[in-house]
Amino acid sequence: xxxxxxxxxxxxxADGPITVEAYMEACxxxxxxxxxxxxxxxxxxxxxxxxxxxxxxxxxALADCWRRAGSPPDxxxxxxxxxRGTLATDALRLMRAxxxxxxxxxxxxxxxxxxxxxxxxxxxxxxxSIDDLPxxxxxxxxxxxxxxxxxxxxVAGVERRVLAxxxxxAFERDGEIVETSPARxxxxxxxxxxxxxxxxxxxxxxxxxxxxxxxxxxxxxxAHRYAPVLAEPGEQDLTAHVDxxxxxxxxxxxxxxxxxxxxxGEWLIRLGIEARAQALSRANPKRAADVQxxxxxxxxxxxxxxxxxxxxxxxxxxxxxxxxx
Length: 325
Ligand code: SAH
Known about the structure:
By secondary structure, this protein is of the alpha/beta class.
């Protein structure tokens, strides 16, 4: 039995079954606080870890948007759940070259990942919550952040819960599932409120669907394989598909403008990732096959190109970021 399962069993014994939301929140807090989950030897690989080209396209889009907004000097680079800091390193290299000299702010709760981020990016500022970001124009990115925030599941209108059974944890009821995520709505509300008040643009990249629809999307990943979500609590990555319709609604309600939702592959190609791949291959012909493979992984419809999607949020006073129209 994992240490977290022991704690959850005690909690359930004392207070009764816990909601899926409380379960996901407990699992992910423990999971991220105790390890660096990324990469070949970890549990999953994210787009910035596949290739520098991913962060570079994001940096190019943010720098371009900032320039078209008149290059406000008080704008900051902000990232939610920056992992190892790889995306920030690649994006900021482009943004610095484009003249952006603003501060770097990370929202990250994991002490292990904060350490990795500090090694990758010097002079960053860390915060526990989006609400703690300074009130300044934001150039914000969140890659695979919203999928880790807890969701609620409802069956026939009743919130789904987890109980302690003889052989392990179990769901209290099954049936058609409807998911909501107040934690995500709140995160998006915070970003959008800041964009509307202070200016700026945000890029949200995640896997998910364009329209709200019923279905169970909670999943667990361990060592790059799917695993049962109630097995080994705290030792595997729990995520759920992002409902981009809910994200767009929360952003609009808070006063931000919202771009159309675009598949990651299409967005990266519009931003010029193919030319960047060619340049990298020309500069280092020995790596050409690797670059081609990474390009395919990021943009290919059977790989990350279609499942992952990009949504832009921006201040109504700012231009929309590129790649959405
Ligand atoms: N964006 C990175 C990492 C994605 S993994 C990449 O693309 O490689 C999810 C990240 O979000 C991790 O850095 C994790 O520690 C962080 N995270 C998860 N839940 C969080 C929360 N509630 N508040 C702040 N950070 C969180």
